[in-house]
Amino acid sequence: MVMRYDPFTDMDRLARRLVGGMQDRSADIMPMDAYRRGDEVVVHFDLPGVAPDSIDVTAEQNTLTVRAERRWTQKEDDQILAQERQQGGFTRQLMLGEHLDTENISATYEDGVLTVSIPVAPAAKPRRIAVESGRHREAIDVEAGE
Fold first, then answer.
1. Which of 12, 75, 114, 135 could serve as 45's disulfide partner, Cβ 3.0–4.6 Å?
2. pLDDT greater than 90 at residue 93
3. What residues have CB less than 8 Å from 141, skipping those under 6 apart?
4. What dihedral angle (degrees, nearest 10) is formed by the CA atoms of 59, 61, 64, 66?
5. For 78-89, what is each residue's pLDDT tens digit?
6. Which residues contact 72 (CB under 8 A, 6 or more apart)?
7. Quick one: which of 91, 32, 33 has its CA closest to 66?
8. pTM of the model
9. In the beta sheet, which residues pair with residue 68?
10. Rounded distance between C-alpha atoms, residue 136 and residue 146, angstroms
11. 116, 57 in Cβ contact below 8 A?
12. Is 53 helix (H, G, I), strand (E, B) or coil?
């Protein structure tokens, strides 16, 4: 059975709001993982219960913005026993490095997880540079940024 009132839970929630009122709550609402795999950066956002058509992903300059909305419509005869899931609109922004290709970002949403793939810009990838020495030419690998 679901408990209708738990004073300790309510006090804990109130304390978190008072102490963390100035903190960014987006990480609690939209947790993420990010990693580089080969020539792309992959970011996973947890968005359970969000309708795919409410998700908006935009890239402007070097900022990736993810907006989503989760709504639950209470019916007239519903009696709320607990209501802890966040409702409404959520936004999370990531600052992207100059080495990412923001023109070719792709996104998919499956099983409550939004996956955003950001390719590494061609100019930031390691490239081969020919080195001339007299009559001989050799090629060496040069890492970008070194």
1. 114
2. yes
3. 126, 128
4. -50
5. 998 888 888 889
6. 85, 87
7. 91
8. 0.67
9. 90
10. 24
11. yes
12. helix
